[in-house]
Amino acid sequence: MPDIEKIYTDLKEKISENQILLNANMKEYTSFKIGGNADILVTIKNEQEAKYVLEISKKNNCSIFVLGNGTNILVKDKGIRGIVLRNRIDYIEEVKSIDEDDYIEVLVGSGVKNSVLAQKLLRENLTGFEFASGIPGTIGGAIKMNAGAYGGEIKDVLIETTYLDYDGNIHTVSNEECNFNYRYSMFKDINAIILSGKFKFKRSTYENIKEKMDQNEQARKEKQPIEFPNAGSTFKRGTDFITAKLIDECGLKGYKIGDAEVSQKHAGFVINRGNAKAEDVIELINNVKEEVSKKFNKDIDLEIEIIGE
Ligand SMILES: Cc1cc2nc3c(=O)[nH]c(=O)nc-3n(C[C@H](O)[C@H](O)[C@H](O)COP(=O)(O)OP(=O)(O)OC[C@H]3O[C@@H](n4cnc5c(N)ncnc54)[C@H](O)[C@@H]3O)c2cc1C
């Protein structure tokens, strides 16, 4: 068992005390608002701090979970042992203009929220990221998940990404090397802290970009249960079926265990009506999977990640 007090003391040597929290309530750090405590939550603001946390975790034989904005995870009720590294590497830099100013390369820190980048690009009249403006995570989470919506995906706009492996080495990999697929990238298979993404965007007009962002936002409001805590689509789309449609046809909209419920607005979302426990959500998910399998003989996969204990 790692010595949490010792890790806390070690971290404080190079990271400000107000960035380190013991027994952090993960309800406060996830959009689902579910989960027990993390032993230590440390917010990092730059690459040096990320490297230092890795060093301390190694020295103390302690595990690390990298947290972005916590919008695609379900934390279990007993919480997370070891360190939660909460990423807030937060910068946006224009790198260069290409093709006589047609394309612009932009380097973005992995802790920047998609909405913040989208607003910045809108102000700069740069198009290509409107699809992600309403995806409530960070750039790091979006790269790992190849986040997408409304016909766009991260893989369409990313040039390359830079990450730190757990031995403290920095690597830069091209878009192709990321091996993107539907809600998948190579980062699903390795231990890494994504540090930044270099993107390409095209010049457009404020009005065109704003119109697309507004349309997407309107569609989200109409179709998604954003009035309740959730973690986005609970399940992945099937290869030859729409998962939410099958769940709906099983009559499961509104199906509840405790405060966990299959949304009545969108059957692909599990929502937290207030005090749902991870245990409730997991039981609900398993039952939904079983019903869909019984009625349609189809296996459905989770999009959200279940973490902790
Ligand atoms: C209301 C709502 C709507 C949503 N709509 C969409 C949608 O339209 N399309 C879509 O694709 N998703 C959607 N999501 C899901 C979610 O927002 C995305 O998956 C998002 O990309 C997750 O980013 P995050 O920063 O919150 O990651 P987290 O939830 O914090 O983490 C997700 C995974 O990424 C890892 N991770 C995060 N940051 C890093 C990093 N810097 N380095 C390495 N690993 C990292 C975590 O360890 C974890 O494995 C929605 C969620 C909600 C709540």
Gist?
By secondary structure, the chain is an alpha+beta fold. The chain has seven helices and 17 strands.
Assigned CATH architecture of the largest domain: 2-Layer Sandwich
Major beta-sheet overview: 6 strands, antiparallel
Gyration radius, rounded: 20 Å
- Name the hetero compounds present: flavin-adenine dinucleotide
Mean pLDDT: 96
Shape: globular
Annotation, overall tally of beta strands: 17
Report, as a whole number of angstroms, the end-to-end distance: 15 Å
CATH class of the largest domain: Alpha Beta
Please name the CATH topology of the largest domain. Uridine Diphospho-n-acetylenolpyruvylglucosamine Reductase, domain 3
Please indicate the count of domains: 3
User: Number of helix segments?
Assistant: 7
**β-sheet strand percentage:** 25-35%
Question: What string gives the helices and strands in order?
Answer: HEEHEEEEEHEHEEEEEHHEEEHE
Structural class of the helices, strands and pairings? alpha+beta
Instruction: Report the oligomer.
Output: single chain
Q: Unreliable stretches, pLDDT < 50, 5 or more residues?
A: none
Question: Share of helix among residues?
Answer: 25-40%
